[in-house]
Design brief:
heterodimer, A: alpha+beta, disordered N terminus, B: alpha+beta, five-stranded antiparallel sheet, 61% helix
């Protein structure tokens, strides 16, 4: 019986490896500008060692940012105003040794840099992203919920075939709630 | 009833497992569909392949869970059964353990070998030389770009210096020729010269390059150069890459002043780009593979482990199934054996199995049936045997009673000489015990002198070829001598085979004694009659002689003495004759109820007064009942015996009279004991014969009369030695129920 339990424990360790545990990434530095509504934020500790290695290996890596806006209703459930999704993608060009960053924030911007830290800054920051259309009523209380998650790593086809049920280097932050009143 | 319940429970259990399987199938299907759906979204792998793989893995996982459940449940059941010491649990544990061990060992060996193989293979993929080769290839490609970048930048600078010196106006043909020459010499795609105001003033393009292929240089880079900052970069186009170098043109008079910019472009064809990209992709692929090296290993390990566990658990389950197939019938067989051993021969084991176990069960059932039939027959035979035994026992007991009650002794021996039967009388005659003698060889039981007599008779029988022989032998017992008529008969069965011998021993002592007594009485009567008749005339004649002639012969002493002697002897003869006569005419006893103890006391008291020196004692049993005896005759017996005792002890001694009731034999025992010298054995034999006396003055009739009286009372007298010395006369009289 002991041996059987040990075997099951070992199996559990194998099935749920440590790498699948989400990193302690979190949304921080949220700032809101009004008229028009623009939001700035950054993701801290988004780049774990595994993700950095994946990026440097030339694996396309994307961060998805989800922004939800709701009007706070003190007596009833909150009213959803809208939901916006943005995507930052990086692909390292090993030949030219530069990072190609694509920032899809409604308007698509592209940037190339050889600086890794700069690339991280591009990927982790959302600078004055326009949340449109958002017609805010002055005096009301609104809640802005922001969450970031690593998009499913795009493995090469053969590897994807092998790891169809495994998520590599995944992370997902908690919802960061920012309350404001226009 | 118990079997039926067990079968019902088994059927319920199977039904339940069937339901579990039915529930599991759609779950497996659902999981497979879900995961294949997810997979089809995530990658470009064929859906059919994914579904197959997913199905297999899911089946494995579900089977694993199911098997874990079954194995755990069975393990708990077996553990509980072992604790409860349920029959068959030990065998089942052994079988499962053996089965699992036999499976686990090769499976785990295979598992570890495969894991090692996979590890080595995967490590081989990431061997250092491969990574180094890929890195060097990539470095080569990178160097190409860097070299080209530096070259075009340097060329841009040198052209800028020339332009500064020679001037680079649109009308400067010499400079234009120089540009063309540089383009041709260095295989550049284009060389562009810009004025400080941003206008392009010169443009040279290689003949091999399509003018539209290489676009104009980015204005941003030109402006940067006009600010005095040279730059080199790669511009990616659809048809290839363009490596550009942009350098400022310094003023001749003031080198810090920028008067224009030179942009040199080198076209890298797409075919070359593709090759370098392939190198880059290979390196990236390798790095990505290296990145997932450990997850790949872990996954292979997991899959292998799952397969291994599936095999192990499945083998465990199969082991248990096979063990149950064996142990359940064995358990039932054990229960059946127990039931049969307890006497339940109606026990049957139900089986549908056609294998050896089924054969065993069927054999058991057949054996039980045979046993039952045999038992029935045996019981019938036993009843018959018991009845026969009862009859035989009754006959035996009857024969024993007959033999025990016949006055003759009967002894039978088998052909080996072992005593098969012996009755009480024979045991007494032969001086042994019935219990002791039975089963022993007669030579061990008989006294040496009796053995000799028997051996002599057997020898005679053999010599004569006779089947029976009769001999009269003397038997000396401890306290008496007996005359026994031995009738020896050979026993033979119907076929004439010798079976043994039977000896009938008749005690002739009493008969001979009676015969002698009668003979002596006849002799005494005749003697008395013949002698007594002439005695009276003799005595009268002698008296007449004395009367007539004594006076005539006054001095004749002879005459006087002779006649006196004649008369005295005639008187003595008369006394003798009278005694003979009285012996011969001994009156028949006239028994009447009398107290033997009282008679003894009366008689002993007579002697006590007259014999001061001799101690008289009497030990009387108060339990002694009133006996049917002739008082006078018994008193005479006592007197005769006490007289003999007094004569034996002499002047100083002890005479004791004892009475005792022997209840088990219903006898009254009267013993007269003296402390005299005792009687020799040869004398004992003739002691009770008439006219046998060891005393000079005795007539020899005293003990004969005693013997006669006791015989008249159906009693028995014998003489024994008294310990430590003396003689003990023992008289046994029958005790009869007397109504007074």
């Amino acid at each position: 019986m002991k041996r059987l339990l040990s075997l099951l424990f070992f199996l559990a360790i194998i099935i749920f490896p440590a790498s699948t545990i989400a990193a302690e990434a979190a949304i921080a530095g949220v700032n809101v500008d009004l008229d028009p509504l623009r939001v700035s934020f950054e993701v801290r500790d988004a780049f774990t060692v595994d993700i950095e290695e994946a990026v440097k290996s030339g694996l396309p890596t994307s961060f998805n940012f989800i922004v939800r806006l709701s009007r706070v209703n003190p007596v009833w459930i909150d009213e959803d105003i809208g939901k916006w999704e943005f995507r930052h993608t990086v692909k390292y060009d090993t030949l030219k040794e530069e990072y190609e960053v694509r920032l899809d924030e409604g308007l698509i911007r592209e940037a190339r840099t050889k600086d890794f830290e700069e690339m991280k800054s591009f990927m982790s920051r959302g600078e004055a992203i326009a949340i449109t259309p958002a017609h805010l009523v002055p005096g009301e209380v609104y809640e802005l919920s922001i969450k970031a998650e690593l998009d499913k790593t795009e493995l090469p086809p053969l590897l994807d075939y092998m790891f169809f049920f495994v998520k590599l280097w995944d992370f997902e932050t908690d919802w960061h709630v920012y309350r404001f009143s226009p | 009833m118990k079997d039926t319940q067990r079968l019902d429970a088994e059927q319920k259990r199977r039904r339940r497992e069937f339901v579990i399987i039915l529930v599991l199938i759609p779950i497996v299907a659902l999981l497979t569909w879900t995961e294949s759906h997810i997979s089809s979204i995530s990658g470009g792998v064929p859906v059919a392949t994914n579904i197959l793989l997913l199905a297999l893995l899911n089946v494995n996982i579900i089977l694993l869970i199911l098997l874990i459940f079954l194995v755990l449940r069975n393990a708990v059941k077996i553990y509980m059964e072992r604790r409860r010491k349920v029959m068959g649990s030990r065998l089942m544990t052994k079988l499962i353990t053996s089965f699992v061990t036999l499976t686990i060992v090769p499976t785990f060996i295979l598992f570890f070998v495969v894991i090692g193989f996979i590890n080595r293979s995967i490590d081989g993929w990431f061997a250092i030389n491969i990574e180094g080769s890929l890195q060097e290839s990539l470095d080569l490609a990178r160097n190409y770009y860097n070299d080209m970048n530096e070259r075009v930048t340097a060329s841009a600078r040198s052209i800028a210096i020339v332009a500064s010196k020679q001037g680079f106006g649109a009308d400067n043909d010499r400079f234009r020729a120089y540009l063309d020459e540089r383009v041709e010499e260095n295989d550049f795609a284009t060389v562009e010269v810009y004025h400080a105001d941003g206008r392009r003033v010169a443009y040279s393009v290689a003949q091999r390059v399509n003018r539209t292929t290489v676009p104009d240089v980015d204005q941003e880079a030109v402006l940067k150069a006009l600010r005095g900052e040279a730059s080199g970069f790669v511009q990616t186009l659809q048809v290839g890459d363009v490596v550009r170098g942009v350098a400022p043109i310094p003023s001749v008079s003031n080198p810090d002043k920028v008067v224009g910019a030179v942009a040199v472009s080198y076209y890298v064809p797409k075919s070359l780009i593709d090759k370098m990209k392939e190198i880059s992709a290979a390196f990236e692929g390798y790095k990505q593979l290296k990145l997932i090296k450990n997850p790949v290993k872990a996954k292979y390990f997991t899959i292998l482990l799952i397969i291994t566990l599936v095999i192990v658990f499945f083998s465990t389950w199969i082991g248990r199934y096979i063990a149950r197939e064996i142990t359940v019938p064995i358990q039932e067989l054990a229960e059946g054996t127990h039931a049969v051993a307890s006497g339940n021969l109606d026990f049957r084991i139900k089986t549908d199995s056609k294998d050896e176990i089924g054969l065993l069960v069927n054999s058991f059932n057949r054996m039980t049936e045979d046993l039952k039939a045999g038992k029935t027959k045996l019981e019938d035979a036993n009843l018959e045997l018991r009845r026969t035994n009862t009859e035989l026992d009754q006959r035996r007991r009857y024969i024993e009673i007959v033999l025990g009650n016949v006055p003759a002794g009967v002894v039978s021996i088998d052909k080996l000489g072992r005593i098969v039967s012996i009755n009480r009388v024979a045991a007494e005659i032969l001086g042994t015990d019935e219990g002791y003698a039975l089963g022993k060889v007669y030579k061990e039981v008989l006294r040496p002198e009796d053995q000799e007599a028997f051996r002599e008779m057997i020898r005679e029988m053999n010599e004569m070829g006779a089947e029976s022989l009769e001999r009269q032998i003397k038997v000396a017992l401890e306290d008496k001598a007996m005359t026994v008529l031995v009738n020896l008969n050979a026993l033979k069965d119907e076929s004439g085979s010798y079976l043994g011998m039977v000896a009938v021993l008749d005690d002739l002592t009493h008969l001979l004694k009676t015969q002698r007594m009668f003979a002596w009485k006849e002799v005494a009567r005749r003697i008395a009659h013949e002698i007594k008749n002439p005695l009276t005339p003799i005595k009268l004649s002698a008296q007449r002689l004395r009367k007539k002639y004594l006076d005539r012969f006054p001095g004749d002493e002879v005459f006087d003495e002779c006649t006196t002697t004649i008369i005295r002897q005639v008187d003595e003869l008369k006394t003798l004759v009278n005694e003979f006569s009285s012996f011969a005419r001994m009156p028949a006893s006239n028994p009447s109820p009398n107290d033997l103890n009282e008679i003894v006391q009366e008689t002993v008291s007579l002697y006590k007064a007259g014999q001061r020196r001799i101690r008289f004692d009497s030990v009387l049993d108060k339990r002694l009942p009133v006996l049917d005896i002739d008082r006078d005759q018994i008193k005479r017996v006592l007197i005769n015996l006490i007289d003999n005792a007094i004569a034996a002890v002499g002047e100083d001694g002890e005479v004791r009279v004892e009475t005792l009731l022997v209840e088990e034999l219903q006898l009254a025992r009267l013993e007269v004991v003296d402390s005299g010298a005792g009687i020799p054995a040869d004398v004992k034999e003739r002691l009770f014969e008439p006219y046998f006396s060891t005393k000079r003055s005795g007539t020899g009739l005293g003990l004969a009369i005693v013997s006669n009286i006791i015989a008249d009372h159906n009693g028995y007298i014998r003489v024994k030695d008294n310990m430590p010395h003396g003689t003990r006369f023992v008289i046994e009289l029958p005790v009869k129920a007397i109504t007074i």
